[in-house]
Amino acid sequence: MPGAHPGARVREAASYADGVIAGAHVSSAGGLHNVPARAAAIAADGVQVFIQSARTWKPTAHRPEDLAVLRAARESGQVQYIVCHAIYFINLATDEPALLEKSRAALLNTIDVANAIAADGIVLHVGSHKGRGLEATLPQIVAELKVALAHLDGPWLLLENSAGAGGTIGRDPVELASIINAVDHPRLGLCIDTCHAYVSGVDVTDPQQLDALVEQLDTLVGIDRLRCLHVNDAAAACGSNRDRHANVGEGEMGDGLALTLSHPLLADLPMLLETPGHEGNGPDAQEIATLRALHAAGLKRRQAKQKRAR
Ligand SMILES: [Zn+2]
Ligand SMILES: [Zn+2]
After folding, report:
1. Which ligand is nearest to the CA of 192?
2. pTM to 2 decimals?
3. Of the bound ligands, which one is closest to the alpha carbon of residue 165?
4. Are 237 and 227 in contact (CB under 8 A)?
5. pLDDT tens readout for residues 291-303
6. Can you give the C-alpha Rg of the chain in angstroms?
7. Which of 3, 17, 24, 13 minimizes the C-alpha distance to 248?
8. CA atoms of 114 and 78, how far apart (whole Å)
């Protein structure tokens, strides 16, 4: 069994207390030592960071003292949760040897930095099979993940569900589960993105569809492997496969996100925004406040429903 679950305190909505870790993707421009202050400026409890430019293969040479600042912030609890998002170029399913080699190097570099800052996790998009199908590429993906997992020293490696475009792997939980079960490692888990789930065709603002998704994840891999949520509203329709994030509460999912965030098996997970923000600079203080408000509203509604049912 995997270790203690961040949402282990699976609770009745009636026992509501706002213990949510409301976090966000935060810029690491100028160095990772800048991250704790940026998180504090928007009142984020947790952060997601890129450890190198997301648009280039070239790794950033971090100063050890910069890494130490972020590590100390995590260890003191000033920052309560940290994930490093691996760059988007990585494709563990590619049939091009040069691209695979670069992907492996980039992932290992991300893991090294995540280890150094005592991050909780590394979020990874597995890549695209470009039409060859998951089954054909699964052995390679499994082999690459095993190499990566051997480098982990503390964090979890979290596979993120995709928006479902083209041959992107992870468009539904079954795909991610088949990878996780084939690798069979105690710290290989999942990060579910609300927008990606929605545009890939699961309306997680609908109680039946949400319950079915969570139940499916629990049955296939065990809910303990779900370690965090990316909370994004969708600027594209359900089933559109278009990866367009909207500010929370302002997109297609709107207030329906309150239901998603308050699901008893999701409500205690760390929640990380990857939204455009109101100035277009990424998640801001207003976004964090809206995330907390939606979470609280969802729990209250569930509580009221429970009371009525009694
Ligand atoms: Zn995401
Ligand atoms: Zn996305």
Report:
1. 1
2. 0.93
3. 2
4. no
5. 999 999 999 999 9
6. 18
7. 24
8. 17
CATH architecture of 20-309: Alpha-Beta Barrel (3.20)
Q: Domain residue spans in the chain?
A: 20-309
The DSSP code sequence of 4-31 is --TT-S---GGG------EEEE---TT-
* pLDDT reported for residue 3: 42
Q: How far is the CA of 195 from the centre of ligand 2 (A)?
A: 7
Q: What is the mean pLDDT of the chain?
A: 93
Q: How many CB atoms lie within 10 A of CB 14?
A: 12
| Spacing, Cα 40 to ligand 2 middle (Å) | 24
Q: How far is the CA of 169 from the centre of ligand 1 (A)?
A: 14
pLDDT single digits (tens) 187-200: 999 999 999 999 99
pLDDT band for position 166 (cuts 50, 70, 90): confident
Evaluate whether 233 touches 275 at the Cβ level (below 8 Å).
Answer: yes
pLDDT of residue 18: 56
Query: How many other C-beta atoms can be found within 10 angstroms of the C-beta atom of residue 157?
Result: 26
CA of 12 to the centre of ligand 1 (A): 27
Centre of ligand 2 from the C-alpha of residue 163, in Å: 7
- d(CA 160, CA 228) in angstroms, rounded, equals 10
Candidates 166, 84, 165; CA nearest to 132 is 166
- Distance (Å) from CA 193 to ligand 2 centroid: 7
